[in-house]
Amino acid sequence: ALYKYLACSGKIAKEAVDSVEELKQLHHCKAPASYGGGGTYRGVTYTFTDADCGGPRSWSSTSCVIGIKEARQSGEDEDFRAYVNPPRMKWWMNSAAASTNLAADYLCPASNSRLTSDFSFFRCKSTRAYSGATTKSHTFTSAECGGKLPPFNGRDCLAVFGQRSQSGRDKQWEVLRYEQATTIKWQCPGCSANINAEVHYVCPKLRHRDQSPWKIYKCYKFFWDAGQNTISYTWKAEDCGGHLPPPTANCFSGHRGGFYQGRNEDMRVFSPKDARGFSFEWWCSGPCTGTAHILADYICFEDS
């Protein structure tokens, strides 16, 4: 069991944390490797099955934080969106398709859990139309976040995309960092349609920041020249605020952003217990040059 330490009348007391109950709030859904995806120039939907999610999806009727974890289909894919009821992913294919890697993480806070007592949750969504310059940005309003913005404009929060799309060749979606974390940016040349941009925030309550068994990791890496084709990077402690989660940690993960000039796509975020380890992978077909950066956020339950 995990324990938190509290100051009680000048003495240190212990309160047990039920690891089994805490982990019932965390769900991973991944399409089988045999799924071949859709065809050309069409929208595609894949609904996760019970088997894809490691058991019955009864949790999908509750309110959940959603993170796009793997969004890849062989070919020119874009506009990935994840949903909870039922758990599924939608996207657009611009060319013939074959293999896929589709995965989404869900974090569904339960009453009386440490997750619920230690964190606050925000879902910000915009469907505004944007045109003009290739690089676009949007700052969420309180109305778009359920009536209240994340504290400190999301500075200390986990922030991951649940949906990111605009009709056209959109790419380079990113949630900004620090006090600008309620602003997103992306590129879409010649686009003028409404966006579907949804970001989920998990924000620590200050009084529980150090004692919680749930730990947030916000990872960022800058490259002078990342290369081309499949690019894999294993996170280091200095990328993630000076610490890494234990290899045995159970983590919720999601794509926060990335930029690399060229035809980059197929973002995949990996957690410590995934076969690839704590890492990030994406695809960039040439010419891909210049500087690049990648971002992924995690919240991990650490049982030691």
Describe the structure.
The chain is mainly beta and 304 residues long. It has helices spanning 19-23, 114-118; strands at 2-8, 11-17, 26-30, 42-47, 65-73, 77-84, 87-93, 100-107, 119-126, 135-139, 158-166, 171-175, 183-187, 195-204, 214-223, 229-234, 250-260, 263-270, 279-285, 292-301. The strands form seven sheets. Strands 3-8-5 form a three-stranded antiparallel sheet, with no helix packed on it. Strands 4-7-6 form a three-stranded antiparallel sheet, with no helix packed on it. Strand 1 (2-8) and strand 2 form a beta hairpin. The termini are close together.
Give me the side-by-side strand order of the main sheet: 3-8-5
- Beta-strand content estimate: over 45%
- Low-confidence spans: 1-14
Tell me the structural class: mainly beta
Instruction: Give the biggest beta sheet.
Output: 3 strands, antiparallel
Tally of DSSP β-strands:
20
SSE topology string: EEHEEEEEEHEEEEEEEEEEEE
Number of helices: 2
Shape: globular
Question: Which oligomeric form is depicted?
Answer: single chain
Helix content: under 10%
CA distance, first residue to last residue: 8 Å
What is the arithmetic mean of pLDDT? 89
Rg to the nearest angstrom? Answer: 19 Å
